[in-house]
Write a structure and sequence with these properties.
Blueprint lengths: L18 H11 L2 H32 L5 H50 L2 H5 L3 H43 L1 H8 L1 H39 L1 H6 L3 H52 L6 H43 L20 E8 L8 E8 L4 E5 L6 H8 L7 E6 L2 E2 L5 H5 L2 E4 L8 E2 H6 L7 H10 L3 H6 L7 E2 L8 H15 L3 E5 L7 H15 L3 E5 L11 E6 L2 E6 L1 H7 L2 H12 L1
Helix pairs in contact: 2-3, 2-5, 2-10, 3-5, 5-6, 5-7, 5-10, 6-9, 7-9, 7-10, 9-10, 14-16, 16-17, 18-19
The structure holds adenosine-5'-triphosphate.
């Protein structure tokens, strides 16, 4: 059950912390060389661009009054050249940075994916898939520009600012101080809205995550929605989530808009002050027209990097909200992992021992208590019992999808918590009711069980489980494209494919959780033969509600009341006239 539902905002454990950026630096540092080149190009382009007002000042104060037309053409050509060169340099830099940005996000994405693949079932039990997807796709995209261009631009704008200030002071010190007077006012505005702005962007990321989770859930459950004519109601939920998102977005944007608004106003006021102070206070004798022109041009340029820096600050604030989510996922502990000193499980015979096993998904609520049993290699075990009794839990523990909270599980005498997960799971085959079909061909789907299997091996496996006939009926046979929802395939066919996949993997221990439940009686008979082949020589645990499918198992365990209430062969249990007998008789009467 996903406890963190689509309409429940995720809580962030850590407050705004520069450490997220420091951590992001690990990825950025790997791009040091291209970033340095891009930075040098940008600095050069900015310096060249900044010489324009100086040229302008010279032209206005010296060249034009002297009516020196030839030098005027020369200066104009030089101005044009500065523009062309700075545009060319900026274009090259932009190309380099696009690549850097993509390299960074692909590395983060790969790390996230690798980590997600290791996270235990518990992580997935606790949150909707949509909230996981949005991190790996949207959030990573959202931080890409900030982590690449953002960092460079940030440094660059500061350098730019220093350059502009230097040029400005070179032209006139007094008017430069007039320009700088606007800075404290601006910093005051920034301080005032900083925290609120960060919260606003966190709220946006929460709402977009909720929207994504619900969309994903709705697409997965489209069949049920249409079946129960829930479209209108779902539309209502979606509209509400979309409205929440829109509301938070608008709120966050209001904070964003405040910054350029203050910068624009301050820049206008400062320019007006330059004119006023320049012309009125200092007077034409002291300040030439060229100086005023150059100064107002520098003042306008001075506020540009400040506006850019504050926009960058906005992007940083957004990115931090996303980075927090990304790193939170990367920090999610891999609780089910190889324990220190874990050894590879040698090739097994298939003996399974539960020794006083106690387990609960949530602490304080045990599903199994002090469960002990021993299964011999090659023995077939049926797990039956009321719904919710813990049958799936038993098999999940054998595969170590969860760790026991008490006691131990041993395979051929090896405690499964002391062997590597890979060596354990590679010797097990698990088939669930909802056989997962990956996008690709039927051939690829069967090959999933053994990546180096030849076509002949695949076809042989399909034949054994009676899947070959229906596969050949498709126009493209084994090369028929299927997708994750298994379109083109019936439930039964999907299961036959997953049987073939498991047979190919040749596991010593086989787990079938309701694996035959959606196969009709005719297909089931067909499958039974194949299944018998599959079970031959393997230890198997079969969970089935339809008892007819498990009658032939060596031993039937009736799971109830946090343990095994009864165990024995079909005949023994019927003779005992206990739980199993009751269940069997009830099912027979239904049939
Ligand atoms: N991921 C989980 N998180 C929390 N509780 C869970 C989880 N999975 C199962 N449970 C609870 O554990 C109990 C046993 O579930 P389990 O799936 O093992 O039962 P089952 O016997 O296989 O049921 P069924 O026959 O309906 O498949 C149930 O009460 C269920 O609510």
């Amino acid at each position: 059950m996903a406890r963190n539902k689509f309409d429940v905002d995720e809580n962030l454990e850590s407050p705004f912390d520069i450490k997220h950026f420091r951590r992001a630096m690990v990825y950025i540092k790997r791009q040091k060389k291209p970033m340095l080149i891009a930075f040098a190009l940008s600095a050069l382009s900015a310096a060249i661009g900044l010489s324009a007002p100086l040229i302008m000042q010279h032209v206005v104060d010296v060249t034009i009054p002297a009516k020196a037309y030839e030098p005027l053409v020369g200066w104009s050509a030089l101005m044009l050249l500065t523009i062309v060169v700075s545009v060319v340099l900026a274009t090259i830099r932009s190309r380099i940075m696009t690549k850097v940005g993509q390299d960074i996000i692909s590395e983060i994405r790969i790390d996230l994916f690798k980590h997600l693949q290791q996270l235990p079932f518990k992580y997935y039990d606790d949150r909707p898939q949509g909230k996981i997807l949005i991190r790996i796709v949207n959030y990573v995209n959202a931080v890409s520009d900030v982590l690449s261009n953002g960092i460079i631009n940030f440094i660059l704008e500061i350098v730019n600012l220093i350059f502009i200030a230097a040029f400005m002071f070179a032209v006139d010190v007094r008017l430069s101080f007039v320009t700088l007077a606007g800075l404290p006012v601006f910093l005051g505005v920034m301080l005032l809205i900083k925290t609120r702005q960060r919260r606003a962007w966190q709220a946006v990321s929460n709402k977009s995550s909720n929207l994504n989770a619900y969309t994903q859930e709705s697409i997965s459950g489209i069949g049920v929605t249409q079946m129960f004519s829930r479209e209108q109601r779902n539309e209502g939920i979606f509209t509400r989530l979309a409205a929440n998102y829109r509301f938070e977005w608008m709120k966050a944007m209001r904070f964003n808009a405040l910054i350029p608004f203050s910068v624009d106003n301050l820049s206008t006021i400062v320019t007006a002050l330059i004119y006023l102070v320049g012309l009125l206070a200092l007077g034409p004798a002291d300040i030439t027209f060229g100086v005023i022109l150059a100064m107002s041009s520098y003042a306008a340029r001075f506020w540009q990097p400040i506006l850019n820096l504050s926009n960058l600050y906005n992007s940083f604030i957004n990115a931090v909200a996303y980075l927090e989510r990304i790193f939170e996922t990367l920090d999610e502990p891999v609780t089910i992992r190889d324990n220190p000193g874990a050894k590879a499980l040698p090739p097994i015979q298939g003996q399974v021992t539960f020794d006083n096993v106690t387990f609960g998904y949530d602490s304080g609520l045990n599903i199994l208590e002090n469960l002990s049993f021993d299964v011999k290699p090659g023995e077939s075990i049926a797990l039956v019992g009321p719904t919710g009794a813990g049958k799936t839990t038993v098999v999940n523990l054998i595969s170590r999808f969860y760790d026991v909270s008490g006691g131990s599980i041993r395979i051929d005498g090896h405690d499964i918590s002391q062997v590597t997960l890979k060596s354990l799971r590679s010797q097990m085959g698990i088939m669930l009711q909802d056989s997962f079909i990956f996008s690709g061909t039927i051939l690829d789907n069967i090959r999933y069980g053994k990546l180096d299997a030849t076509e002949e091996e695949i076809i042989a496996a399909a034949k054994t489980v009676r899947a070959d006939d229906f596969i050949r009926e498709f126009e493209q046979g084994y090369l028929t494209e299927v997708n994750e929802r298994g379109s083109k395939l019936s439930q039964g066919q999907r299961q036959l494919i997953s049987f073939a996949r498991t047979l190919l993997a040749d596991p010593r221990i086989l787990i079938l959780d309701e694996a035959t439940s959606s196969i009709d009686a005719k297909t089931e008979r067909l499958l039974q033969e194949g299944l018998n082949e599959l079970l031959k020589g393997r230890t198997s645990f079969i969970i089935a509600h339809r008892l007819s499918t498990v009658k032939n198992c060596d031993r039937i365990m009736y799971v109830s009341n946090k343990g095994i209430a009864e165990a024995g062969s079909h005949d023994e249990l019927l003779a005992r006239k206990g739980f199993y007998h009751r269940l069997y008789t009830a099912q027979k009467m239904e049939a």
